[in-house]
Amino acid sequence: MSPPAASSGVRMSNSSLRAWVHEVAALTRPQHVYWCDGSQAEIDRLCAEMVDDGTLIPLDPVKHPGCFYARSHVNDVARVEDRTFICSPEKSDAGPTNNWSDPAAMHTLLKQILDGCMAGRTMYVLPYLMGPPKSPMARVGIEITDSPYVVANMRIMTRMGQIALDELGDRDDFVKGIHSVAHLNPAERYISHFPAENLVISVNSNYGGNALLGKKCFALRLASVLARDEGWMAEHMLIIGITDPTGRKTYVAAAFPSACGKTNLAMLVPPPEDLEAGWKVETIGDDIAWLKFGADGRLHGVNPEHGFFGVAPGTSLATNPNAMLSCRTNTIFTNVALLSDHTVWWEGMDGPPPTQAFDWRGNLWTPQSPTPAAHPNSRFTAPASQCPSISPDWEKPEGVPIHAILFGGRRTTTIPLVYQAFHWRHGTFVGASMTSEKTAAAEGKVGELRHDPMAMLPFCGYHMADYWRHWIAMGERGGSRMPSVFHVNWFRKDTNGRWLWPGFRQNMRVLKWMVRRVHGEVDAEKTAIGLVPHADDLGLNELGITGNAAEQLLGVDRAAWMAETEERDRFFQRFEDRLPPEIFFENAALRFRLVMRRSA
Ligand code: OXD
Ligand code: MN
Hints:
The chain is an alpha/beta fold.
């Protein structure tokens, strides 16, 4: 017998959905079952309840209308890659970069944790849509959760409620997600994906990346499997539209590891002289892209999300005014610092630090305190529609044609500011070879270098070598219509540890060069690693970057690159005979070009 459903206005006649919800309720035994309709009245009521029980603190209604402050448990502040599992029927299908568990064994273990875990709580049933309404690329997910904080965040991050039920109709192909905060016990924390069942079960965490199941769990890990099987791509990429002074639009999708500036690039404000000349950058998405061939044979991209789950520290009016304006209203701030006037603060915000604040743990903080006021992975959850740079195309059901794909990492040495791959297969190798210094978005030691192919290391739901094979196959299908591929590195330092590149708005110089490359309007220097801009074409002189600094920023250090190829070989060996020969070949060809001191 399942408990009574607390009434909401949802209209629903999908019997497979109803049966599954009953099954989950019978296991988790909540006090109430509540179907979310996604309405404003519903969320207002839920937020009022969370304010009453201390889960949320309302922010100043004038400075931050509709905004709330939340703190997580101190042991629950980031994604937990060592507790994230791909439970594919065959171990070999998860590959060497994922944790695998036998699906039956994982189900048994999770059943014990889920058994009665919602007792005394309300179980929320959240229907949500990933992708623009009426888009052939959109998919419906259902998340069952006992966390009203998750409901409030999912309502921002997805199109949630009746709209999703209407899109689903009577179909049973929805992605299932079961989430319970259970006891927030880190030893029993599991983020488990069952690709063969279109199912995610996440227990003992309430952190966004682990608990908002539409995001990393569905839109990347499970969607990457669906995409492989159905001939499309689910990628950890932002999408922007760049308008040049002729009015022409060029769309770029870009994959950077977590906390490496995707949100900043997605919302870039060009420097004043470019704005005056007629350049514009518009945001379609800041984290995830679903790419599918359109009727024109090109890859088209949609942003499956509906909001931003942005890293707060370092975000300011100087570094990302569009993000600051996006999160002024109707936003949930998690683990930032709270000021006594009910506004928020984090390290890197404009102006001097406050004389005192309550830190993310709730302790009194002053600038003399030895620890940061905001957790380095503190977040804002803000509606994408509030972003001043949101593109008029962002909800186009058919998506936007992707002209260029950009890879990037946080590398203080070796990798130049920008280079272009010779062709798609080489570009696949460039993406597969991505490395970056570790950030706070996942647990682990910050600063360590790690391989993060296509920024998908923590998000690919199957064997990474098969994923590269899928990229190569997509390239064979798309032929000359595939996007051009580039690699950027905003994070180069000189031998004294000073940044070589100013970054932020000046990244527009690189984007403009890429636009001109895509349309065949500027040439490039053929080097062993790829096609590199001439310093003049980026206007490096105007930035005072000349001589040795320009050489370091754009040059190819053959010895360092040889070491890079050796490191790549070591990494690729992990994939044994599943490694596509094309990837092996591209690394050998790179080494050959470096040794022969030839260009291409
Ligand atoms: C994110 C991440 O939150 O990549 O987007 O960790
Ligand atoms: Mn991300």
